[in-house]
What does this fold into?
Amino acid sequence: MSEVFENLKQAILDGDEDLVVEYVQQVIAEKIDPVAAIQNGLIKGVEELGAKWKAGEAFLPDVMMGADALKAGLDMLEPIVAESGASGGDAKGKIVIGQVAGDIHDIGKNIVGAMMTAAGYKVYDIGIDQPAESFLAKAEEVGADIIAAGALLTTTMAAQKGIVDYLRSRNLREKYKVMVGGGPTSQAFADEIGADAWAETADEAVILCDKLIVK
It folds into this structure.
């Protein structure tokens, strides 16, 4: 089992989408725990790739290929994870997640969404470059508990504040918990804009969700 996780990690590092699909098919066929495959295979690969990029050992095209390979794997595994315990009424809570207006970087969002799904939440991913109106519209539609907004650029962080402000302007601020995250963000920034929580990593995001949703 650990071999297939190692293979998944390496396929992400190599940016080999076809191999990721092949190994994920193996995970599904052999009924290997999909959550473990995400955490110990796909995400380990992305984390290592990110470290290599920061160290100058990998380049942006490598990261982009790794992100595409990750998405291919997540697209196959997330429905299985959702079916096994995060679907419908028995979910721990409902989360709307997306990248704010002007931000088209989705690798972090995809990882956080996958981890939230794996932890038993029903996750509604509205995608990239989404205005505050889209976050709220989806939250209203599905009866969400949390709105999670990511920003990977200093220039798009203001849009996270925009979501909090928009909820206030509609007198709906108390209805939803707002979580923010992304490279340039911080706890101080979250406090400044009036968000309920800030997560530095996907693991932290899940722990915070557990604290934010009191059933």
Summary: The longest helix spans residues 60-83. Residues 91-212 form a domain with the Rossmann fold fold (CATH 3.40.50.280). The two ends are 36 Å apart (CA to CA).
